[in-house]
Structure formats: C-alpha cells, structure tokens
Amino acid sequence: MNNYSISIVPLVENYPNHAAKAQEIVNWLSEIKAIKKEKSICTLDKEGYAIDEGAEKLVEFPEELPFGLQVCGLEVITQSHIFTSGERELETVLCPSCKKEMREYFENQVHLWESTNNFIIQCPHCQAKHPIHAFHCEPIWGFSNLGFKFWNWTDFTYQFIEDFEQRLGCEVRVVYEHT
User: Fold this and answer.
1) pLDDT at 86
2) CB-side exposure of 168: number of CA atoms within 13 Å?
3) Based on the domain organization, do 29 and 69 belong to the same domain?
4) Which domain of life is it from (predicted)?
5) Boundaries of domain holding 162
6) Could you tell me if residue 49 is left (phi over 0), alpha (psi between -120 and 50 degrees) or otherwise beta?
7) How far apart are CA 173 and CA 159, in angstroms?
8) Fewer CB atoms inside 10 A, N or C side of the chain?
9) Is 110 helix (H, G, I), strand (E, B) or coil?
10) Same domain as 122, residue 101
11) Pick from 38, 13, 16, 34: which is nearest to 25 by CA?
C-alpha cells in the first residue's frame, strides 16, 4: 500500500521557539484525544504519535480514517525542512511580482535554503526579492523549521486548520505528499 501524508506547515521559515511550540501543539492534540500521548512507531520508520479517537472530529470524512493501519500517526518536524508532494516534482513556480516561470532556478535556491537558511529568493527575470513562501508552487510545497505531518489521515476540516493557525499565531500551508 502506498502511504500519504498531510503536513501543516507555518508560513514562517524560521519559527521562533519552534521546539516549545511543537510540544505545545502535541499537548493540545493529545488533550483533545486526536493523538495518543506516548510515542510509538506509527510513521514511516520514525517515532510519532499514533492516531486516537478524537481525530474523527478534525477530518472531513471520519469514516475513512484508517485506525488499524500501522502507519497512521503524527510526525513532528523541528528542523529546517522542505515539505514536498513526494513523488510529484514541482511543475510550476511563479514569481509573485512578474508572474514568470522560474522552476529550475527556484529548485536550486531551495536547496541553498536548506543549508544556509537564506529565506529570500531573487527572481532571475525581474530581480524582485521575496521570502521563499511568497512564490506560487504547483503542487504546493512548504518550508519551515517546524511542521506537523499526519500520516494516512483524511482531509482536515476548515475549522481544524483555523484552530491550528490560531495556536501557531500565523497562516499555514497544507501540503499533500504521496510516497
């Protein structure tokens, strides 16, 4: 079976106090019984937090949650990370200023971001500088030192995404990954 994930990624490349915020979010999700409190191997070869019965209130199609699946939990990422769509590569990247295509250039700059934490990318066409999140990517990608990857869950409700944004204090990007 192929696995998939839905990542909730803050639109902040270098989230301040990211480890403390990650624990705060884990505590919240545990309190509402969306995830189990104890870590287990419930993500792809990593420890995470297994799904719990409260997850049904957070998704559009609760009857489709795979409670019996071994890979079905929350992986918390607390280091600079590119949240990709998995097997699908970037098809399009548009500059927010001139709207010109710049996929290859952007991909090279993204790999520099991982090693340098330089959040600003300059468009090779119009020379405008923008934060990495400002560029329109298809499929959607995310970039941050904080992220929450839900393995094999179904689509979240709009309310859950809003609650997540409120707790993070910023907008988020939702990234769908297929492996």
Assistant:
1) 86
2) 26
3) yes
4) Bacteria
5) 4-80+142-178
6) beta
7) 14
8) N
9) helix
10) yes
11) 34
Cβ-based neighbours of 22, under 8 Å, separated by 6 or more: 76, 78, 146, 148
Radius of gyration of the chain (CA): 17
Distance between CA atoms of residues 24 and 105, nearest Å = 37
Backbone angles phi, psi at 142, to 5 degrees: -130, 155
CA distance 121 to 110: 9
Query: Which of the residues in the chain have pLDDT under 50?
Result: none
Q: Are residues 147 and 72 in the same domain?
A: yes
Q: Number of folded domains in the chain?
A: 2
Q: How far apart are CA 141 and CA 86, in angstroms?
A: 10
> Is 85 part of any domain?
no
* pLDDT for position 119: 84
Rounded distance, CA 76 to CA 78, Å? 7
